[in-house]
Amino acid sequence: MLTASLRSRLAQLRSASARAVILIDGGAGSGKTTLAQEIVADWPGTIELVSLDELYPGWQGLARGSAQVPRLIKGSGFTTWDWTHGRPGPRRSLKRALPLVVEGCGAITEASRALADLALWVELDEPLRRRRALARDGAVFATHWDEWAAQETAHWQEHRPWLLADLVLPG
Rounded CA gap, 104 and 101, in Å? Predict the structure, then answer.
C-alpha cells in the first residue's frame, strides 16, 4: 500500500521534519494497521507507532479515544486500555523526539490534523472491511460490529476525515 505518491510524501517528511507526525484513519478492517506497519518498516531509524485500539475505553469508546489524539501527539505518553478486564491499563511512554504514527478509527479530526504533518485516509467498502475485521478478530468483534459501525458513522458525519486527509488510499 506504499504508493509512489505516499513514498514521496514520506521522503519529504523524513528530510524536513524533526518529528514527523502521521495520522492514519479509516473504517474497521480497511487496512490502517497494515499501512502503519509498512510505514514503520520502511522508515529509517526508530519511529513510534500507536494504535488507537490501545486507548479506546471499551466498545463505546471511539469518540473518547479520538478526542485523546491531540494530547497523545503533544504528550509524552498515555494510559492504555485493558480490554480483558474492561478498565484502564498501564501507562505507555512515548519519546517526543521520535517520529510518530497514530492509526485507528477516529485518528483524523480537525484538532489532530492541525498537529500532524501527514494525514492518510484508507478507503474500503463496508462488506470487505467487515469480512476482514471479523476474520482478524473473530466472534469478539462480531458481537460489537454494529455498535462500532454506528460510532464510525457518527465520527465520519461530524469530522469528515477523508476531506482532512492529504491522501486517500485504497485498502
Answer: 10
Cα separation, 117 vs 143, in Å, equals: 36
Are 44 and 14 in contact, with CB atoms under 8 Å apart? yes
Tell me the C-alpha distance between 44 and 134, whole Å: 33
Nearest Cα to Cα of residue 124 among 10, 25, 42, 43: 25
**And the C-alpha cell for 135?**
476474520
Dihedral of alpha carbons 23, 66, 32, 77, sign:
positive
Rg of the chain in Å (alpha carbons):
15
Predicted confidence pLDDT, tens digits, the chain (171 residues)? 788 999 999 999 998 867 999 999 999 989 999 999 999 999 999 999 999 999 999 999 999 999 999 999 999 999 999 999 999 999 999 999 999 999 999 999 999 999 999 999 999 898 888 888 888 887 788 888 899 999 999 999 999 999 999 999 999
